[in-house]
Amino acid sequence: MPEIRRPIRIGNASGAIGDGLDQVYRLARDGNVDAITADYLAEFNIAWKAIEMIDHPELGYEPHFLEQLAWKDGSAARLLSEKRIKVVHDGGALNPKGLAQKIQRYLHSKNITNLKVAWVSGDNLTSQVRETANTSYKHLDVPGLSQRGDDKKILAANAYTGYSGIIKALEEGADIVICGRCCDASPVMGLASWWHSWPSNAWDKIAGSLMAGHLIECGAYTTGGNYCGFQEIERQYQVGYPIAEIASDGTSIITKPERSNGAVTIDTVKAQFLYEIQGPKYLNPDVVARIDQGKLEEVGKDRIKLSGIAGYPPPPTTKLAICLLGGYQAEISAYCAGLDCPAKVALMKSQVLRELDATEFTTLSIEPYGTSKHDPRSQAEATVQIRMFVQSEKKEAIDKFKKAVFYNGMQGYTGLHLAMDWRTMEPKPYVKYFPALVSQDEIQLDVNFVGGKSGIVVEKKKGVEFGAFSGQESYETRERVDLGSFRETVRRPLGDLVFARSGDKGGNANIGLWVRNPCAYPWLQSFLTIPRIKSLLADDYKPQYRVERFEAPNLHAVHFVVYGILQEGVSSSSIIDGFAKSFGEFVRARVVDLPRCLVDEEQERRRRNIEIARTAKTVEMSVL
Fold it and tell me: What angle do CA 41, 47, 51 make, to 5 degrees?
């Protein structure tokens, strides 16, 4: 039998551009890690990179990793070299070769010559897509919607790739592997599969590593960030970033460096588990993970074990991110205060729209944000934002928008004032995001080393390694109980009992909601139906949207995806929260009938936990 290796410890140093500047250094110094990953890409910055490369084709990568390497005058880079810690990430974006070369030059400038830098190419299918005359790509989520491949507006087309190029690079001796648009969890999957020598059909193990990657890919989101129970975290500043200890059987323990700030708890991990998923089947080019039976178990302080993930063969297709030049956009915010704010908003809207020809714009949005507080104690409490946002295929239309705003500046409502940075009204290009599908057989990955071997072909999957994907399962609860059986109710915000985490995938928003008391889960299952979530979304829900629902009973969670509510995705959306980060907090703020016994128990738990956190903070401040 092959030797069973100890679990591999993989730390994540970044969940977004600009994130975790000191985390490569801190993980290398304090994390006792074998490898470090990072996730710098989202749909919006892939779009930005596509625009950047119009004038600067030598760029197109995310440079943040270079700053992380240079932390403390290169101490981070030296620790990687001394401890021989592997690094794999997607910062190459649209130009992984360019970033790999930059990294090599920086390392050599610090006399670090023992690290081999490689990049994986092949995800960029822009040329192939542009050359496919009379070929259309079907939209990933919207039936009947397609995109022609030979559209001259296409800036980039990148396939979401799996772990095979990463494994190949590691097998060839790479220390740092730079990828383009690989899937967010693929670096973790590749490292775990390489470390444990898993065969490509070890579905359960690979699926387990996929979810471990999902749990750490957003960095601090697992150690206290973006967590609605944040008041229970003792020290939520300069937090430690997550580490996944992935065992040979595919189970994992999520933790963080010892004595670092933040927390790894059942709930911080559960929040990330439910974040930006699309249903009970988590799709990846290398495996489909069945996640609805996933289990989380506390096995020590800041140590949460993940198990219960099942794996199946992946579909023969993968996502293709097509970025197109959408035109130009601009925006400005006006503000009103005090009384009659709805009438003031209506006047502003009618005055501006009277000066514009709506047919010249693809988007014309004038919407209020916030409300004026009754009997306000400050002007800030009385103020409402009026955000005006426009898009057009022509620059000239943007100039007309600016003139329309200024034309009405002196004849508007009482107290009209604008945001003072008027540069936001200048036309700037924006990118439309079109998610499609492409056959994995059309993708040929290669591994290349800076100053070494190049064009190392990565073997493609065979047909027998693929499975059929018939879509996500959506259903109402099969364990319905009579809500009246919970007896006395009280009108309270849903969030007084229920936790949530929300996010985006293209034009869709997802929200996972859970309770901490198992006794409250039957109520949650029966209360949170598809019609109920639509009613909770209230004015934000439109008939053209659709909703899917599933349950994760071991997590005491119910999960929803609302298709289309984010328009075409964050890179072109007129919605101020295009990432749907606060989508869940809006739902939690809705007032509903809650069982008094359940909400009282949860409120007492929170009171105790918050008091413990505050006491710890007070002790810390007294020491300082």
Answer: 130
Token readout for 268 is: 């911080």
- CA 282-538-594 angle, to 5 degrees, is 80
Reported as a single tens digit per residue, the pLDDT across 334-372 is 999 999 999 999 999 999 999 999 999 999 999 999 999
Q: 């006792």: which residue's tokens?
A: 32
Sequential DSSP letters for 454-491: --EEPPPPPGGG------------SS---GGGG--EEE
- 394 three-class SS: coil
Number of DSSP helices (H) and strands (E) in the chain, helices first: 17, 28
Residue 142 CB-density burial (10 A; 0-12 exposed, 13-18 middle, 19+ buried)? middle
Rg (CA), the chain: 25
**Under the phi-then-psi rule, with left for phi > 0, alpha for psi from -120 to 50, and beta for the rest, what region is 389?**
beta
Q: Is pTM, for the whole model, over 0.85?
A: yes
Residues 6+ apart with CB under 8 A from 532: none
Residue 210: phi and psi, rounded to 5, are -60, -45
Q: How far is CA 315 from CA 69, 163, 208, in A?
A: 37, 15, 18
Q: Name residue, tokens 């985006």.
A: 504
Q: Are 335 and 380 in contact (CB under 8 A)?
A: no
Measure the CA–CA gap between 35 and 137, rounded to whole angstroms. 37
Pairwise CA distance, residues 84 & 86, whole Å: 6
The answer to whether the beta carbons of residues 180 and 39 sit under 8 Å apart is no
Distant-in-sequence, close-in-space partners of 529: CB < 8 Å, separation ≥ 6 = 476, 477, 549
Q: Answer yes or no: are the C-beta atoms of 347 and 412 closer than 8 Å.
A: yes
CB contact at 8 A, 409 and 425: no
Confidence at residue 616, expressed as pLDDT on a 0 to 100 scale = 76
